[in-house]
Structure formats: C-alpha cells, structure tokens
Amino acid sequence: MAGQLNITPSLEQFQEAATKWRPELLMQPIIGCQDTIQHMTPRPGIRYKENVGTIYGDAQFAPYKPSRSSDFNLNVKYRTLETYMGSVHCKFEPNSAASTILGYLAATKGDGQMKAPTALQVLIYIAKSLSGNLNDAIWNGERNATGDTTHDLFDGFDTITAAEIAAGAISAEQKNYMKFIHVTPKSNMLVGYDQMGDIESVMVKEYEPFILSYIATMFFGVQFESIDYRKLKVVELAA
After folding, report:
1. Sign of dihedral through CA atoms 137, 141, 144, 146?
2. pTM across the whole model
3. How many angstroms separate the CA atoms of 197 and 190, rounded?
4. What does the radius of gyration of the chain's CA atoms come to, in whole angstroms?
5. Which of 108, 135, 144, 118 has its CA nearest to residue 9?
6. Over the stretch 79-138, which tens digit does the pLDDT of each residue have?
7. Residue 60 phi/psi, 5° resolution?
C-alpha cells in the first residue's frame, strides 16, 4: 500500500547483520549486566577452565620498633575460574519485534524520530534482553548441566559462597567470615596515608647470607567520615 512504512528487515538483512556484527552482539548480554559487573573485574578470553592465583605474604606493619624483625614467606593460593558453554534458541516474529521497537522509539524519541528499525537494532534488543536473567544468575545461579535456564548455566557468587562455608573454607577461623557488614557510601569510608612527605621509607638490606630484609615505614589509617544514621548502617547477619 502506498505510504505504508515497511518495518520488517529481510531474512538476508538479519543474516548479514548477525555475521557482520557478531562480536558486538555477543557483547550485548555483558553490556546489559554493567550495573553488576562494574563492581567486579572482567576477565575476557576464558573458555572452560583457568587457574587464578593470589600471592600472599605474611609480613605486616606494626607499631614502630627498630629491634623487631621477622621471617617473610610468600604463598600462592589457586582457585579455578570455570566458564560453561551456554546456548539460547529463542524464536521471534520479525514484524512483532520490529513493531515493538518502533513503538518504543516513538514513545521515547518522539514521532519525528520514528524510523523503521534495522535488522541490527532488532538483534541488539534481543541479545541485550538476555542480560536480565544473567544479572540474577551472577549471584544465585546453580550449575545444572541438564537445565534449560540461565540459572542452570553456572554457579553464582552466592552459591559458591554457600559451598565454601559448608566446606569450612569460609569461616570465622579462616578470618574471612564476619557477623557484620557495613552499608555506607564509599565517600564515607576514608583511607588515610601519607605518600607525600619524605618520612616514609622503603629499603632492602642483607639480613644474613641469602636472606634479605625488606624494611619500610609508612602512615596508614581508616575512619568513617560520619557515623550518623543517614550515612552509615551496620547490619548484623544471621549466623
């Protein structure tokens, strides 16, 4: 019909967009999770398993005492970061999807900005919608290889934590389990140190054959800017 807006991209356009913009489409679920992931450290390029490790040392600062010395040991503790292959097969009707997007654009951008969505736009909206369930699974996912939902794809942080508590790896004795958490904006948690003057020092000297001493002085302290109830909540967790 003359004057009718053709809002449906062709099959070839969808296929071309999926091929051409593959990396960008694959990133959409991740981009959609940024409200959560921004508080974490992304590790791209992981397929299946990779060992991650943290080096720990047992030296520590204490009140200044020239006569004090201690042996220093480095240890590495490894954990396994595992990613699982997931798949999605979602059927969508191009006219309905394009119409929905067109209505959304008209409502948010105004009729003057209303244009038929491209195949890429439709695919982006579909791909990004996958982040909704992924956002939840980051916390509460439980790996079930025969499952059919995002919740089944991998173990989330809450699930990993519960398993480690059950195994005794997270406990009061391990010093990584506490009964309190502090809910407060980052601006209220102050970390003080010097780093500006010439009093702090770091040096390395020979302590005895084959043994060196790492020697340092520094200023360091933390404090809440305010403990007013409008800026700080201390919440006791159930044991």
Report:
1. negative
2. 0.69
3. 19
4. 27
5. 118
6. 878 888 887 787 777 777 777 777 766 666 655 555 666 788 888 888 888 788 888 888
7. -155, 150
